[in-house]
Amino acid sequence: MITLDGLGTVLEVLTDLDRHSTSCATAMMAYNTTDMLSATRAALDCADIAAAAHRVLSRATATDAGVIRAILKAAATAADRCATECGQHAVHHSHCRVHSETARYAAQLCRAQLDHITS
Looking at residue 60, what is its pLDDT? Predict the structure, then answer.
């Protein structure tokens, strides 16, 4: 299973991902342009998945390893999408740059934790 230190790091990164995803989506909605619509949707999905992953991983005792694997994979997938979508706007919007960087790191960390999950 995930070590206590590893779990603490993952929970912290998921909190950051949720916060940055929500902030970025809110900022993109203020522009009210269709070219950011996909990135906004990705950010909102990512925030919801990061929050759900945080809740599941917070109760690590007696949690099914398959569920943990699935939620970490979902979080990594959502974060990858945000890193790509917001990465396209990162040069012009600092909220997208920060969000893209956070999402990229979160995806890497979630995937790294998958190696530590047994049965």
Answer: 59
Q: What is the pLDDT of residue 3?
A: 63
Q: What is the mean pLDDT of the chain?
A: 90
Query: 71, 52 in Cβ contact below 8 A?
Result: yes
How far is CA 103 from each of CA 43, 60, 65, 91, 118, rounded to the nearest angstrom? Answer: 10, 23, 23, 16, 25
| Reduced 3-state DSSP string for the chain | CCCHHHHHHHHHHHHHHHHHHHHHHHHHHHHCCHHHHHHHHHHHHHHHHHHHHHHHHHCCCCCCHHHHHHHHHHHHHHHHHHHHHHHCCCCCCHHHHHHHHHHHHHHHHHHHHHCCCCC
For the stretch 76-88, pLDDT in tens is 999 999 999 999 9
